[in-house]
Amino acid sequence: MKKVLFFLLFCLVAGIVCDAAPRRRKHRRSAKRTVRHAPKPVKLSVHDADPFHTCEDTCAHVHGIDVSHYQNEVFWNSVGDDTNISYVYLKCTEGSDNQDPLYLRNIEMAHSHDLKVGSYHFFRPKVSTALQIHNFKAQCLPPEQDLIPMLDVESDAGMPTEQFCDSLNKMLQLMEDTYHQKPLIYTYRNFYNKHLQGRLDGYPLMIAMYSDEQPQLADGRDYIIWQYTCKGRISGVKGEVDKSRIMGDHSLKEIYYVR
Asked: Which residue(s) pair with 188 in the sheet?
């Protein structure tokens, strides 16, 4: 009798084990299945959708770039021959003694490929304006300029607005005395609206605002150039580059260097 009971118990346990095994295998197979949800579409701006399909390829505006050593070596033959870029502003100097290490190469090569070239100085409001103009004019030589010099104004260095504007006006006057024409002023829309509105009458402006909408200045000032992206892509520049265009009824001739 004990043998019969033992045999029946053995069969019952074996049946349970055999019945459980397929369920474990099914469980392992189902664990390997993953549900792949389609990614949500990302909304791209016109500047991100296709960085090589750009405004200057499809419109009649006059476009340009500004370049410094941050772009490393630029292949100017490609910029001049393979793009619709018409002008370029090159970083020349900054503050009292900083000189862009690629400026001399850039200006020579850009000229050799028939681009209209101008030079700019990055303004440091707490630094002596006499030292800054000395630095700039030692590099920015009139015979090499197609476009009027440009002053890059992006920082007030924590100075009160009146003190900052006093330093800026001194620098602008020194540039005008040196080159005998008013310089182009580059700045951001928000910076202009906060510090400069109503203070730069008579000076041509390049306004930066990276948006699909054209910038509006708080005082209603007109401007000649809009820098519309800092993430432009063009043939001849390995990375990103600032791109701009001449606005409305303005023309590139308005900023030609007059000798």
From this structure: 208
> Among 113, 46, 103, 47, which Cα is nearest to 75's?
113
For residue 98, what are the β-bridge partners?
94
Quick: pLDDT tens for 68-113.
999 999 999 999 988 899 999 999 999 999 999 999 999 999 999 9
The helix or strand, by DSSP H or E, that contains position 241, with its residue range, turns out to be strand 241-246
Which has the closest alpha carbon to 224: 253, 198, 195, 197?
253
User: 3-state DSSP call for residue 11?
Assistant: helix
Contact 148, 179 (CB under 8 A): yes
**Separation of CA 187 from chain center:** 13
- Tell me the two tokens of residue 170: 């001194």
Going by DSSP bridges, is the β-strand pair 85-94/63-67 parallel, antiparallel, or unpaired?
Answer: parallel
pTM of the model: 0.79
